[in-house]
Amino acid sequence: MAPTFMVSAPGKAIVFDEHAAVYGKPAIAAAISLRSYLLVATLSKSRRRVEAPYREAAKIHIKSATAFLYLFLSLGSKSPRFIYTLRSTIPIGAGLGSSASVCICLSAALLLQIRALSGPHPDQPPKEAEIQIEHINRWAFVGELCIHGDPSGVDNTVAAGGKAVLFQRNASGPPSVIRLTKFPKLPLLLVDTQQPRSTAIQVEKVKTLKTNHPEITEMILDGIGKIATSALELIPWADFSGNSDALGHWGTLISMNHGFLVSLGVSHPRLERIRELVDYANIGWTKLTGAGGGGCAITLFRPDIEEQTIEELERKFAAEGFQIYETILGADGVGVLWPAVFRNSTDGKAGEEIDQKMFENADGVQGINQLVGVGVQEYREGWEFWTRDVSPI
Ligand SMILES: Nc1ncnc2c1ncn2[C@@H]1O[C@H](COP(=O)(O)OP(=O)(O)O)[C@@H](O)[C@H]1O
Ligand SMILES: C[C@@](O)(CCOP(=O)(O)O)CC(=O)O
Questions:
Q1: Fold of 5-183+330-385
Q2: What ipTM does the predicted assembly reach?
Q3: Are 267 and 255 a contacting pair, CB within 8 Å?
Q4: 155 noted as active-site residue
Q5: Catalytic residue among 17, 155, 192, 332
Q6: Smaller CB count within 10 Å for the chain: N or C?
Q7: What CATH code would you report for 186-328?
Q8: CB-based contacts of 176: which residues, under 8 Å, 6+ apart?
Q9: 241: DSSP letter
């Protein structure tokens, strides 16, 4: 009987150049340490059934249940004796690529079950690892087609390989995607306005602005495009540890990028409130991420911020109904915990299997992170990742 195992994949944040990306400018999206986790447990022979990963048939789950069924019927092992249990720490519908992360988990788990992947293991040649990542990514894209209709493929590419990508739309074909394997791991505050938003409406807003004020809007879009280029130039050589100017340089670019997005009309009073509170606390540089009009803001921390200042700010956010996440930018891509057994443990659980009940009962984001997390506060040993060849940037 195959052991119980687990796979995990990150969400994403657009770090530079949303909206300008629609008009062919380069944009940078990076993996964040909020993740989906999928536990695959084998049933005994007497219990032959397939259990879908969503316990409540809530409307919001229907699309991803469809993706699961499509992938399961395309890739599923001939012996349907498994329970797939999905838990996630990524807010849904907030522009953080939750569905792509789910699809990467489903695709990786199903491909592992039919033994169509090799690794991950520490000695695996990067070229071979790259092939596995792409195999997972392509099937995940099929799942994304079920959920999003016509996605660009950026979210699943980031969730598969982690770190970050530079993507650029192409008038005559699919977008070009360059993997940024040297992208730094940076602590990030992610604040969810809890304000629902529609990407299509925000994109339409910019289109109308461009029709009514073509010259000025194009100037703004050009300006935004130059921001990603400038940010990119720093990656190969910069030290982002806080001992150099690199972090401040990126911080300035983040603030400038937000200013441009405000002038395109895609911010929201709740997003501006986040920026105001962060600016008063003077802890970092803030911009909206994704389509805007609600959704999330990201703050890159200045170096040497006192924990107390962050805690005070977090209290203010909570009092005003914002949801906060301390995350890492440039997180790892798809990972595997095989078998799903505790390796390190301060609670005397080392060697114990992480079973379905334990996973289901984990209490919220914190509970999931404590149990199996590869996030910020927790890093459970045993997770392995396919590691790509290091690119020049
Ligand atoms: N963890 C999840 N569980 C169930 N369904 C999900 C999950 N994540 C995403 N989805 C489905 O995918 C849709 C798109 O969500 P998401 O990827 O978060 O959108 P975006 O990143 O564009 O804001 C949701 O409306 C929901 O139907
Ligand atoms: C506004 C835009 O640039 C990014 C939208 O991001 P999201 O849907 O919020 O993840 C649209 C796009 O590039 O397709």
A1: Ribosomal Protein S5; domain 2 (3.30.230)
A2: 0.95
A3: no
A4: yes
A5: 155
A6: N
A7: 3.30.70.890
A8: 167, 168, 170
A9: S
